[in-house]
Queue: 2 jobs
Job 1
Amino acid sequence: MRGGHRHRPSDEFGSDSDVEGGGGNTSTTMKCVSCRDEYCPSDAGTCRECYEEASETEEELKREIDDLKAKVAFLRFFCTPLNQRPTSCFTDVVLVASDDDNPVPVPAHKAVLASRSPVFRAMLENEMEESLSGTIKICDVSYDALRTFVNYLYTAEACLDEQMACDLLVLAEKYQVKHLKTYCEKFMVSKLNWENALVSFAFAHQHNAKNLVDSALSLIMDNMDKLSKREEYLELVEKDPRLVVEIYEAYLSKQVNTAAHKDSLSKP
Amino acid sequence: MRGGHRHRPSDEFGSDSDVEGGGGNTSTTMKCVSCRDEYCPSDAGTCRECYEEASETEEELKREIDDLKAKVAFLRFFCTPLNQRPTSCFTDVVLVASDDDNPVPVPAHKAVLASRSPVFRAMLENEMEESLSGTIKICDVSYDALRTFVNYLYTAEACLDEQMACDLLVLAEKYQVKHLKTYCEKFMVSKLNWENALVSFAFAHQHNAKNLVDSALSLIMDNMDKLSKREEYLELVEKDPRLVVEIYEAYLSKQVNTAAHKDSLSKP
């Protein structure tokens, strides 16, 4: 609760409520119970009771966070990646990146895959080829991405860079692992800038990443004057003109709304 | 942040900082930005900046809680208990309550058991009888407790009453499932009262539940005058007198400390 900001310097040794005045004095200052600095009535925040309630709430929230962190740690599977552990860990299936020339199998448990992904569940429970052979081939993916993907299914954690976030989002969409998809989308939204906005917009569209579509579109609309000069723009017009139409439609709709809003404000 | 308490009634439509006086008036009241009630300087809590910081902190903590809850939901295994699911879920081991006449097996995964309990891990990885036969016999436990225990290993959740908490604590201690042990201990501490304090104290001792030992002991020491009249006391003297000695030793030590503390206060 102790703030990092500073008002003017104050007496460190004063009591909690240094109220000067009150009856008919010329100034009233109080000491903040949180940062301990003095302030005048116009800078007043809460009464003491609300401050105490808020402090209790904060403590409760922190306890809840500790409990939840312990739960996550408990529910997480093992600490080291499966293929770096000395024993087999009772794995009953392997995943391989089928595009690799010398694919290294990533060991896993059918139960974990089925629990995290409805696509894996259908594949494994219906005794399709993958279930019988104990090998699941995954196309268009590197060994690194596949290993990170499988590890995420066990731990709900991944170390992302921009390429890995793209690769995992594609896998998350394909195998319907919503939690991972949200995780990648959040990361990519945080990395959005004018340089990558158009590429991200097209990528997000392709993989149904709605939050990323919206964020990228919003960034593009803020820079419409520069849009048509970008190389990626010309490429997109060539490759998927419907997406370019969508940008213009969204921009027009925003303009109409803004005009209507201004209009309603100017009326009596 | 909106408090549930009430000061005196105030003007609902006033502005945020209704500062009367300031220069040389006879009264200064402010409106709390959280509960919107008026208060005088002596009831002042925080300055506005600290209030805003605290509100932001609260929002951040709530977002963190939402993220952690989503993580827990993701890491949890399946929604329904394993033995109520239509398919096998790729289980590779069963647990049975060996005291039962007609034991109903509780299906599970070696990988989950090994991940949650170092005892199960050693048992299963070292290819002991249990691993080879695919059956783990558990003594001194009911089918209900065993099923609840296994379900906890998958979900980190259990519906407890006092008997179930005891049963699960015993299992958690035996199979070194720390998270479950803490969970049961917390529940039992919350249910402590003078009626069950002695029994809980003895039980906690037997199963190395330190928090429960401490809480029960503290409750017993607050009621020393009534201790020797209780039936459970007489039983404990008979059955495990060392525990009774421990109570008296703790009581004496507390008395000596209190006396020393009083003594140090009375000295100049």
Note: Residues 81-189 of chain A form a domain with the Potassium Channel Kv1.1; Chain A fold (CATH 3.30.710.10).
Job 2
Amino acid sequence: MANLLVDERDVQFVLYEQLKVEDLCQIAKFGEFSPEVFDMVLDAARKLAENELWPANADGDKIGVHLKDGQVRVPESFHRIQRLYCEGGWPSLSIDQESGGQGVPAVIGCAATECMIAANLGFMGYPGLTIGAARVLEKFGNPEQQSTYMEKLVSGEWCGTMCLTEPQAGSDVGALRTKARLNPDGTYSITGSKIFITGGDQDLTENIIHLVLARVEGAAAGTKGISIFIVPKKRIENGRLVDNDVTTVAVESKLGLHASATCALNFGERDNCVGYLIGPENSGMSIMFHMMNEARLLVGLQGLALASAAYMHSVRYANERLQGPHFSAIRDPDSPKVPILEHPDVRRMLMWMKSVTEGMRSLLYYVAKCVDLAECSTDRNDAAKYRGIVDLLIPICKAWSTDIGFRVTELAVQIHGGYGYCNEYPVEQFLRDVKITSIYEGTNGIQALDLVGRKLRMNQGALFQTFIGEVSKLVARVNENPRLKPIAARVDEAKSHLIEATVYFAQKAMSGEHAVPVLYATPYLELFGDLTIGFMLLWQAEIADEKLQAMYANAGAGTPEKQKELAESDREAAFYLGKIASAEFFSQSVLSLAQGKAKAIMQSGTGFLELPKEAFLRI
Amino acid sequence: MANLLVDERDVQFVLYEQLKVEDLCQIAKFGEFSPEVFDMVLDAARKLAENELWPANADGDKIGVHLKDGQVRVPESFHRIQRLYCEGGWPSLSIDQESGGQGVPAVIGCAATECMIAANLGFMGYPGLTIGAARVLEKFGNPEQQSTYMEKLVSGEWCGTMCLTEPQAGSDVGALRTKARLNPDGTYSITGSKIFITGGDQDLTENIIHLVLARVEGAAAGTKGISIFIVPKKRIENGRLVDNDVTTVAVESKLGLHASATCALNFGERDNCVGYLIGPENSGMSIMFHMMNEARLLVGLQGLALASAAYMHSVRYANERLQGPHFSAIRDPDSPKVPILEHPDVRRMLMWMKSVTEGMRSLLYYVAKCVDLAECSTDRNDAAKYRGIVDLLIPICKAWSTDIGFRVTELAVQIHGGYGYCNEYPVEQFLRDVKITSIYEGTNGIQALDLVGRKLRMNQGALFQTFIGEVSKLVARVNENPRLKPIAARVDEAKSHLIEATVYFAQKAMSGEHAVPVLYATPYLELFGDLTIGFMLLWQAEIADEKLQAMYANAGAGTPEKQKELAESDREAAFYLGKIASAEFFSQSVLSLAQGKAKAIMQSGTGFLELPKEAFLRI
């Protein structure tokens, strides 16, 4: 099978030509790695994705998960891929070596994970949350907890979950009611109900380690009184696993992700559910906050991965599907049919899908590399700078990538026409699967509030200033290149409009009109994301143009005709031309709206917040 | 059950306060109707929709259709609703009285159909296509054909279909291969395969009348050589129904519309399929073109109807779902939970959903009323004017309403959060069901080409001029109203930008650069739709403001405080305030982008049409 999941050439471009990840090997922590090792990892991930995860993807969708006799059962084919996934050492890929992991840089983990998610998002939820749980224990667990659980999680022998949501408390985590009562032996008795728990139960592993947010008796209301507990499905007593009074009440029947068990769990139905406190009491939210960046980056990656698979499938389809004559011969019934890739409307859609997919890949890998640098830089200022970039851009990574990722899958259905609406083709599954990513791990509305309410304010706006500085530097550099100057100008203009909107928000906040930034946080995040993607694509165009000019020079291709000839015969030249085209198209078709988007934010009032509810519906 | 399908108050507003449909009763053709009769029709439609169609909707989705022993079976509950639908006389609602129908104006048919579609799109596909087939026979069938089929179709005893698409010929209808061979008795033998035939088989009716596009042996290639035939599933021989060699090969398994049988049909597998020519040979396409406006309006209505149901469900949910404190008390864990309708981000989404849903309803009813006037006006100029409005706006009705309708269902899922992703709530079904509407009956890309390639050119651009004239007239009028002037100004500005883009396309076409309008037809249609909806909402705001001012005057509410009090205690005042808010919000948040959208069209090149395909994917 041709790889229709992730564009390998583009992955190589982002990693090595744009981000120069080989430089990470100079850092002590990554000293034993080399580009060759990175490529081996990526190659192995790709093979697992293509040969094993992808073939089980449709299976997972059609068969789904089932709850029977209190036990969730996953599709048969998932047992095989779980085994292969563990055998390949994938659960421990980006866990530190001192914790038993392989410790590859986050950016490489990101690239490896992208193609595995593109192949099978339903499956990847199980290990995805396991890594999250392992990380919590790695950073906040006590030595006993680490020795009890880490090895099993890191090997994939056991899975982990994150149990936050309760029926009455969705986005409002502080409203949770699950209780923890201190036992004389220092453990806690947990009672309560959680919903929407990904991988809350399954029959892939003999045990599941739930990390559960709960309130210790007598603790404060709201988020301040929340603690976090290890609650194993089966606890260890005298070296044996015994049931820990965790009951799977239901699995949700969902739009997509049928293979991922979304569970409602009851803890302590028989008052025999034991939990083990992680860190001090009441530190549950701050521990979760530490994990948040990574978790949200991962969800952004899910948006990218499904966009990537949707785009790749669409290009293949558009190249193979013959229909109608070329538009220049539309009135001639005898003119030959052409692939729909030649039809302008289809090509325009593909061009948009290409540019945003490449832009998201660049953004997510870039932020992942900043995660690496923030953790490893010995220079404190450098570390702070990278941490700031991560903090600022995480809501964009999560929300923009999942909103736009959905949009890409929508267009993939459109390009496939009637066939796209049928299960026979995989694109409608992409659309259904990816939709959840705008909802879980903090809805995209929550991401926007995080951006506007927290991130813009951090260090008196310094994060934003730093980011704008990076954009300005790039624009100044590219402005010297007459071929790319128009693109740079559009990025620069979008930057000014984002600044305008940001200043406007700051003024409103200072004058106490908090409703304004709260009300327009989502359109603001969209505008911010547009600029960020424009910035990424301009950066890529700069590199591509340099490579292309060198190729032209090498080939003695001085005239446009000769250059066109080269591009048509040389795949590398075509790739670089495509890169520049992505930046150009995105700047023209998306960044041109920046002024209007800023205007819409700044001129729109808050009047409709005052409308009586009867204005919406005679309820 | 509260009506969560269509906002009845808004329907009344559009019909009577905005469009003054009572005036239609002055026309001879509609002389026996009155507003009371219209309301009886709407009331009956609503009752059928709420009490019968809606309860079967989830059923249809879960059970779906199945092909067994060559026969498609629909869910059991559909037999009941089919019977009730026929008993209520709904199949013949807008069929002329001389053809055995009830002859209600198209605009009333539109309003009645909206709520039935909102209740059950899967079911409504069967009668929808039946009406289409009946109309073809009504207009183009010979008397014998009419007497054989019309009564059965109009009573709903038999269903009809439209068989256009073939595997190799989707949007390119001219490529079809189904053959017709003239028999000595004047009938034709039909052989060929069709796919994606809605209602291609079912067990609701004893017979199905397929209208089949086919090429008579020796006819020209392309669309010119296409004829249209009646091909009954069972033909009448000596007063008995006998099999007519139409085989159902498959039913598609689809993203949504599970209750609607999308069939692959083979005609003449045993060389015993008889077809009856409608009209002269080779007139198939022109006959189909006559039906196109109505069919596309109906699909636009499907986009509106599912948007409406999605919006109504979302408002109810947002009003009932308590979560988190009011944003002004965000830091106080003890502050009471508020309905998420109070959360600014949710309200902003609802406001957008409300404004576009109301705008679409206004547009579609308006165009339907123009259909009535075009058919009934005794003044030839008037008739031509209305026909021109219909022709121009039909692609907008179809494409804008289905694209935006999908977007509304997407936000409905978002507002429902995790619950929206689960089957337990109906919104995810709306999203899946409505997606097909951007694809069938001419993809939205085809609609855009129809707008740019045909409609803008008709009568040397006179249609466009007329439409712009209507917008200008409204703007001039509303400009006199200081309260609404800012909204009118934004509509006027959007109008200028649409004109700019239109002139730009005309110039490009004149200079032979046809690629430009072809490439940017879809973004152009979006901009055109934005202005059209802005126009509709401004028109509604004008009326609402007048009513509101009268209410204030009656109540002696001279101050803003008193006016606010009135709006909070009087549902009518709240409704009108909501109307003005819709126009204001849409003009601010959508029309503000018009300049950028026009710029994106005009500054974007055609360069990427020349990219080698390897730039898209190393295929």
Note: The first helix of chain B runs from residue 8 to 18.
